[in-house]
Design goal:
By secondary structure, the protein is α+β, with helices and mostly antiparallel strands. The chain contains nine helices and seven strands, in the order ααβααβββααβββααα. The strands form three sheets. The protein has a three-stranded antiparallel β-sheet. The chain has a two-stranded antiparallel sheet with strand order 3-4. Helix 2 crosses helix 8. The protein is extended, with a radius of gyration of 30 Å.
Length: 247
Amino acid sequence: MDNKLIQQYGEDILCYRLRTARQKKRMQYKDFDRQLIQLHKEAKVLYEQKWNLGWESIIPPVQKGWKRFFVLREDVARSRQAEFFEKILRKINTYEWSYRKNFVVSKRKKRRRIHVVKEQKLLEPCEWHFVKLGFNVAEQQMFREEWSYGKQKKEPVKRYVFNEPWRFVLRVRPNMITKMRIKDSVLESRMNEINSYLERNDLEWKQRKLLDGNCRWRHRDWEKYNEGYYYKSWPLQKIFDHLKEEI
C-alpha cells in the first residue's frame, strides 16, 4: 500500500487491504496468465476425450488408394527358414500409400519433370530402436552396421541394415478403410474455438512460456551450444592438431 494513504488515514486503513493502481494492474496480468493456463488444461482434456471416443465400422468398406509393403519371396516362403524370416519382416516391414497403383511420383531432373517409381526400403533402425525391437542373437547376425547422416545431416548416425533384402519382395494391395473414429461436434467446436483464440491474438508463445518457463531458445541458437560449432571457422589442419593433442 502507498505510504501516502497511511499518512493521510492512519494505520487503521491497513485492515481494509486496499490495492494501489500498480497492484491492480499486476493482478490483471496474473489473472490473464491463469486463464491461459486454464485454457491449456481444458484443451488437453478435450483432446483426450476426442481420442477416447472409439471407432465405428464402415459398411461397406471404402477403398482409398493403394498400399505397398514387403512379403516373403515365394521360394523363401516354401523353405524351412520361412518362420525365421517372417519374424524379422514383421519388425522391419514398411508401408507406403499412394493414390496410384503403380506408385509413380513426379521429379524434376535437368529442368524437366519426369515420372519415376517411388523408392521403398526396409526399415533401417538406429541403435536405440534396434534394441527396442528385441531381436534375438540369431536375428541380430542378419544385420550389419552402417553410418549415415540423419535428416539434419549434422552428425552421423549408426543404423542396422538387413544383409539379405532379396528375400523380400514388394506387393501392392487396395487400401481398404473398414472403420473411422467417432466424432463429437461439441468437442470439435470447442477445440477450434480455443485454437482460433490463441492464433488470432498471437498468444501461443506466451502460453508456451508460462508452461515451460523462460523459453529463450530458438532452433537457430542450438547450433551455438553444439560442441562442433566453435570449430567451424578453424582450418582442417588446425582441427587435426587439436584432436592429436586431446588423444
